[in-house]
Write a structure and sequence with these properties.
Organism: Sphingomonas crocodyli
Low-confidence stretches: none
Strand order of the largest sheet: 2-3-1-4
Largest sheet: 4 strands, antiparallel
Number of helices: 4
Helix content: 25-40%
Shape: rod-shaped
InterPro entries: Dimeric_a/b-barrel, EthD_dom
Number of strands: 4
CATH class of one domain: Alpha Beta
Distance between the termini: 113 Å
Protein name: EthD family reductase
GO molecular function: oxidoreductase activity
Mean pLDDT: 77
Length: about 200
């Protein structure tokens, strides 16, 4: 059978065992081929070398965003998401502070109610450049020594706007003059012209 010799008196099973032994011996004695490039002698494969040698420099550890400084473009400086802007300083306004005495025919409650419900809407409609309009009323007779029943403030962006609008025919109309005469003692009105600065915006 093939190249094997059948020994006299040897069974077929024994002959097959002899053939297996001879094949195993040939495998042990065969010449070992030299390892290929990239393959270790123990049959395993060598670790794959990185395509970018700069990535494995020991003096430059790997980190996010700076993997290969020599191969990447420099990062642009990142803008902060929320920029803190300095508070905007509000321009000074021109304000008229008026110390008012009510018409003696009106009670303090009637005086305040008419000013709020009738006089204020009328003045606001006649002064489109008005930026601030406020009435201050005394608590527990706080203005008794000032001979006034209320302090009213009207503010404009500048003096030119104030003079133009308060001398306009619209503001000097008969309806507004009649309303002021009903509400106030016109002979006792005192006006103070001031320039304002918001201390919280400095």
């Amino acid at each position: 059978m093939g190249h094997a010799r059948l020994v006299r008196g040897q069974t077929l099973a024994g002959h097959e065992a002899l053939l297996r032994h001879q094949r195993q011996q040939l495998r042990r004695d065969r010449r070992v081929r030299p390892p290929r490039e990239g393959q270790r002698s123990d049959g395993g494969r060598a670790e794959r070398q990185p395509r970018l040698p700069a990535l494995c420099r020991p003096d430059r550890p790997l980190c996010r965003g700076a993997v290969a400084p020599d191969l990447l473009l420099p990062d642009r400086p990142r803008r902060p998401r929320h920029r803190t802007l300095p508070p905007r300083r509000r321009a000074a306004m021109i304000k008229i502070i008026s110390l008012l005495r009510r018409n003696p025919a009106l009670t303090p409650e009637q005086f305040r109610t008419y000013w709020r419900e009738t006089h204020v809407p009328l003045v606001r409609s006649l002064l489109p450049g008005l930026r601030h309009y406020e009435g201050c009323f005394p608590v527990d007779g706080a203005l008794d020594g000032y001979d006034a029943d209320a302090i009213v403030e009207l503010a404009f962006d500048d003096r030119e706007t104030m003079e133009r609008e308060m001398n306009s025919p619209a503001f000097l109309c008969e309806e507004r003059v009649r309303s002021s005469a009903y509400l106030l003692d016109l002979n006792s009105v005192r006006n103070i012209l001031v320039e304002t600065e918001d201390a919280l915006k400095l």
